[in-house]
Design brief:
mainly alpha; 18 helices; 411 residues; 0% strand
Length: 411
Amino acid sequence: MKHNNIFKRFSLLSFPEWLLLVFPFFSVLGPTYVNLLLIISSIYFIYFLVRFKAYNYLRLNWVYLYLIFFLYVICTSFFATNYIHALQNSFSQIRFLLFSLFIYLCVANVKNFDLVIKTWSFFILFVAFDTLIQFYFGYDIFGKESPGHPNRLSGPFGKELIVGAFISIMSVPLLSYFYEKINDFNFKFIFFFLIYSFLITILALSGERLSFLIFLFSTVIILVLNSNFKKILIFSFFLISLLIIIYTNNNYVKNRVNDFNNIIQNFYESSYGRLYESSYLLFKNNYIFGVGLKNYRYDCGNQVDPRPNNIHQFCSTHPHNFYLEILTETGVIGSILLLSSITTLLLYLYKKIVVLKKKHTPYLPLLYGNILIIFVYIFPIKTSGSFFTTWNASFFWLNVGMALLLTKESK
């Protein structure tokens, strides 16, 4: 009977809710499948908008600002070195906005989030378990080998070293949600901490330093947002003990920590310092309009390297920093438009949170987690993947859409 109830709940999901539920599965399969999901959701959203004449929902200032940014990058693309590549990537940005609005407007029943949350949680644990198998045996459940980099794992992602990013970005909102449900030091607390310990251990073993730090600092913020001092104190004690055990008993983790310390102490001479330098010099020569989306890779090589004897490469496919990327490729004007859109969005969500706090909604901690991930993306002092690529952008706009969806309870 229990299994029948589970199948019945899945059968009651609407088509938009199914698309939301399978998002993490598609992200593991690769960018092609994520793009397919984005295209389907965009088409469905446009149909929904026209069919039900829901244009009033688009009268949001942050949406207007993003649409202006979208038109701006299309116009500046014609002046880029590789204008075809710039134009293609500029046009494709609209699918991310439509994806977030699709989640906001087309996922009708917020209560079905419970089923989505549980399904996502099981899948995240599966990915973590698959990565652990790869750590011990050199290949995962699907026969995918470790990519050959020292101290790095990829799990089901194969050659892509992004398993840590996947686990941290997907887990933070869910951890915020489940942690709030724990009232005291009991079985639920122990079970939650065991799951948490497993995830943070896998992140440490993956070798993705930034993902580990994102997960760790997000945990601190989640603890601060919780008002139960006793629970915070107990969890903090166990967390510190766990971190000490992980660091002192695994040379695999120690090597990555030592590498991180060396980069921080000698950042200017590091590989990241070189990329930051090249993007800054490129921005100085194109500071108003930028070089066009995805054109850093083309224009960077035309510069004179000020330190040709440095062992690290001067250019890459992107600057590895969110702000340097938007400044270099969209200029001051594009950066102001995009950041104004994100800032206006955050202010909109803040106003909704004020209303939701009075209602004591059970989904408020999940909303906090979504907003926390948005802040992670725009945090200035960190390295990052390209903001305008399918994999990175889809997770950002997923959290935007989920946050907007959860604000429906404030209406």
